Amino acid sequence: MNHPSDNAVGCHLPHPRIASLVPSLTELAFSLDLGPFLVARTGYCIHPRPQVSAIPKVGGTKTVNVPKLLRLAPTQAWVNVDENRLELVQTLESHGIEPIVTHPLGPQDHRALVGTLVASLAACPEVQARARAAGDALLERIEAALAATRPDGRPLQRVLYLIWREPWMTVARDTYIARLLARVNWQTWPPVEGGERGAGRYPTVHGDEPWLADVDRVLLSSEPYAFGPQHHAQAQALCPNATVQVVDGEALSWYGPRVVEGLALLRRLAGS
Questions:
Q1: CATH 3.40.50.1980 spans which residues of the chain?
Q2: 240-259 pLDDT tens trace
Q3: Pairwise CA distance, residues 245 & 219, whole Å
């Protein structure tokens, strides 16, 4: 693997060595022109292809191979409250690796997210400057997509967004996914909020809830569970009066550059 060199970016300070342990953050790193500084990723970090293929894998988001990660000597690790375990963050800190903790709760949080990542690069101003310039261009695209995707004048739709089966699992209203869907006036059910962290953010659906009969749309996410057409009948039985469709889970749950695609997808699904 080619590691970044100081001369390549004109930086006379130690360059950052970034371990990105969240798929959407890995993709975002490339959008911030930081690909050369990534030294580790998870096996789920598959975008952008083929650029990520040269970056060593260190397990999954919740099953990080810590000894392998330490051998790659990152200076910082990008993590997420929902995706990674608190114990991992504590382990990183104990080994002198700075955890850069992210927790965007909606598409409107991208300016703060990009700001956090750019700020973490202060030890190398030249790298920080290139990331800031790329980030400003990305944020301009994201904010234009947000402006084009608003709930005003759209009919309210009750939506069950399924991310897992056996048991069925969905999303609480204070998750990134639910707030993205709200941009087209799609309201997720059940009407619960899960709090800042923990299992309550992704509630289980048992199948006997009275509100299931009133759901307008069931969205079967292509990830983390690989829903496909073969699950259509089961989902239809769960919500007999709903329209059921498989949707691109990466577009609707990954933050970073993927949100532009996600908002465009929602506009198409909503008919505008």
A1: 7-147, 157-269
A2: 999 999 999 999 999 999 99
A3: 5
Of the options 3.40.50.150, 3.40.50.1980, 3.40.50.970, 3.30.1330.130, the CATH number for the domain spanning 7-147:
3.40.50.1980
157-269, superfamily in CATH?
A: Nitrogenase molybdenum iron protein domain (3.40.50.1980)
What's the whole-model pTM score?
A: 0.91
The 10s digit of each residue's pLDDT in 58-95 is: 999 999 999 999 999 999 999 999 999 999 999 999 99
